[in-house]
Amino acid sequence: MSEKRIVGNASHSYEVAEGWGKLPEGITYGYTHGIVVDAKDNVYVHNTSKDAVVVFDKEGQFITSWGAEFEGGAHGFYLHTDADGIEYLYFADTNRALVVKTTLDGKVLLEIGIPDRSDLYDSERRYVPTDVCVAPNGDIYVSDGYGQYYIHHFDAKGNYIRTWGGRGSEPGQVIEPHGISINLRGDEPEIYVADRANHRIQVFTLEGEHKRFIDHDLDRPCSFYFFGDEVYLPDLDSRITVLDKNDRLITHLGEDQQAYKQQGWPNLPKDYYRPDKFSSPHGVCVDSRGDVYVAEWIFDGRVTKLVRQK
Q1: Smallest Cα–Cα separation from 88: which of 68, 108, 70, 66?
Q2: What does the CA dihedral 251, 200, 290, 303 come to, rounded to 10 degrees?
Q3: Facing residues of 203 across strands?
Q4: Mind listing the pLDDT tens digit for each residue in 213-249?
């Protein structure tokens, strides 16, 4: 019997569920960029292959796959329960410069293209959305993380409202705003932006006003997953960071301070990877019982389940 692999600390301890989520014959991952979990604890893995959405149950049994239209452009991935009580998926497609809303089985309900801002975008200045989130009122926020570094605000029907950001390190400015999410842990909703190349999180009001920075215990934050009073962040430089309700460090999961320093990273020799260490975590989510799922930015994908022990 093999020894259990445990990661975390005294308050947040997890066992690595080795072999979880085996793909059926004929399906392979591209880069695994995003991962979300629905109310039934089914897990959706977003990757750049022709099977851009792969769905498993919590035990890791394959359910279905779809999403050929996202092949090559699969990036930001967000699950939101709308005011109608129904869960929907939201996508940021870097190849098509498109934000898409679908049902859980892939029916397209809304597409939002390039914002009508000729002062910001043209043939030379590209728009490359990397993530998307949804506020309690249904408004949609999109981070242009690989283009001109702006945050765009739309209503629930995709009508343009406002833009803020732009390249820089001053309050309100961002460099590579890679991920975006809604923080509901305080008195009022806030927007969290993974200001990745500035090595920090930047917090805004829903109207885009700068509130504060979070810049401790972070390296290259990619995105966010809020679970209870905690927030889980894939830190691209080889760890998952868990912060408490005051955004102070609880623990780093699977930290490997050597991985991102290796030649050829993130696509390292297969014998380098270890089940209890991360190399290039890009997406994270947490199910109803506190189990953690991690998707890594590796050319043929890597998904890890961590089972909460205490």
Answers
A1: 108
A2: -100
A3: 192, 212
A4: 999 999 999 999 999 999 999 999 999 999 999 999 9
- In degrees, rounded to 5, the angle at the alpha carbon of residue 177 between the alpha carbons of residues 49 and 223 is 60
208 residue type, one letter: G
CB atoms within 10 A of CB 40: 12
Instruction: Please choose, from the candidates 140, 138, 304, the residue with its C-alpha nearest in 3D space to the C-alpha of residue 234.
Output: 304
The letter for the amino acid at 2 is: S
The whole-angstrom separation of Cα 273 and Cα 294 is: 14
Angle at 20 between CA 15 and CA 22, to 5 degrees: 165
* Pair of tokens at residue 1: 């019997």
CA distances from 111 to 74, 101, 157 (A): 15, 6, 9
Distance of CA 178 to the CA centre of its chain: 9
pLDDT above 90 coverage of the chain, percent: 98
- Residue 144: which of 108, 120, 118 has the closest Cα? 120
| Residue spans per domain, the chain | 6-308
Q: How far apart are CA 94 and CA 170, in angstroms?
A: 26
> What does the block give as tokens for 188?
């009022």
Tokens 């805004």, located at residue: 204
Q: What are the tokens at 20?
A: 């979880």
Close Cβ partners of 269 (under 8 Å, ≥ 6 residues apart): none
Amino acid type, 245: K
Tell me the sheet residues that pair with 284.
Answer: 294
Whole-number Cα distances in Å, 175 to 210, 233, 269: 15, 18, 31
Evaluate the CA torsion angle 295, 90, 232, 21 in order and state its sign.
negative
- CATH code given to domain 6-308: 2.120.10.30
Burial of 33 (0-12, 13-18, 19+ CB in 10 A): buried
Q: What are phi and psi of 277, to 5 degrees?
A: -130, 140
Whole-prediction pTM value? Answer: 0.97
The stretch 196-210 carries a mean pLDDT of: 98
